[in-house]
Amino acid sequence: MVIYTTDAIVLNNRKYSDSSLICNLYSKDYGKLSIIAKGVRKVKNLNGAILQPLNHINLVYYFKSKRNIQTYKEASIIKKYDDISKNYNKILISSVILDMINYSSIEDNPCDIIFRLTNKTLDKINSSESTNIFYYFIFFNIQLLIYLGYKPLIKRCYKCSKTLDNASFNDKSGQLECTSCCSSNIKLNANSIQLINKFFNTHIDKINTHFNLDNGTLNNIKKYFFHYILHHITNMKKSKAYINFNKKYDSI
Questions:
Q1: How many domains does the chain have?
Q2: Whole-prediction pTM value?
Q3: Distance of CA 243 to the CA centre of its chain
């Protein structure tokens, strides 16, 4: 048994026995991992507060290769997103982001870029006006898909390679196709396609000054990414938070 130390984001936790927690985390150095923290739910134990979802922590744990769940030793908080906890929409979107990391990641497969992307997105959501947080969510969707190897094809029809003006999402191919090749209720007009391309080419620090979307366009873009992600990252179908968050856009 060896001791490992790493920065990590707490994705979720659940009660175990009378006084313990089992936590899923996404770590900078080791990717997704699960730990058991014994006794942390006791009244006088402060570690339970450290191991709450959204906390960015420095984690020390005992590692044993034959175990699926490692053993917690200690941790300290690096960053706590206080402003997120005060706003319902910020809590909702941040919880969905954590679930996206949880269900799209596998253990022992670290990706420093995804770790930094998650931290940076949560930083922006924490500090931004509530009207801008959906833009950061779309940005996160796009960048996560790119780093996982599922970059959306936006410029040309997947079937005939025609330059896309108006497009429909094909559930079978999982891609956008022109209106001649596909007709579905998941549609993007020329303006939405241009805006998605703009998201591809905009740094996260410029998001709040480069976008001003009406609700209809914003909802259509979110609806497209919802179906795209469910098609390509099938584990997301297990996420109740992700499904419930997107239900209202799927019915539009």
A1: 2
A2: 0.93
A3: 13
Q: Is 238 exposed, middle or buried (0-12, 13-18, 19+ CB in 10 A)?
A: exposed
**CB of 217 closer than 8 Å to CB of 240:** no
The strand pair at 31-37 and 70-79 is best described as parallel
Report how far residue 233's alpha carbon sits from residue 196's, in angstroms, rounded to the nearest whole number.
20
pLDDT in tens, the chain (252 residues): 899 999 999 999 999 999 999 999 999 999 999 999 999 999 789 899 999 999 999 999 999 998 999 999 999 999 999 999 999 999 999 999 999 999 999 998 999 999 999 999 999 999 998 878 999 999 999 999 999 999 999 999 999 999 999 999 999 999 999 999 998 989 999 999 999 999 999 999 999 878 888 888 999 999 999 999 999 999 999 999 899 888 765 554
Q: Is there a single domain that holds both residue 222 and residue 105?
A: yes
**Token reading at 93:** 């979107």
Based on the fold, state whether residues 41 and 93 are members of the same structural domain: no
Residue whose pair of structure tokens reads 């960015």 in the numeric block:
56
* Residue 182: how many other CB atoms lie within 10 Å: 22
**Boundary (domain end) residue, out of 46, 64, 79:** 79
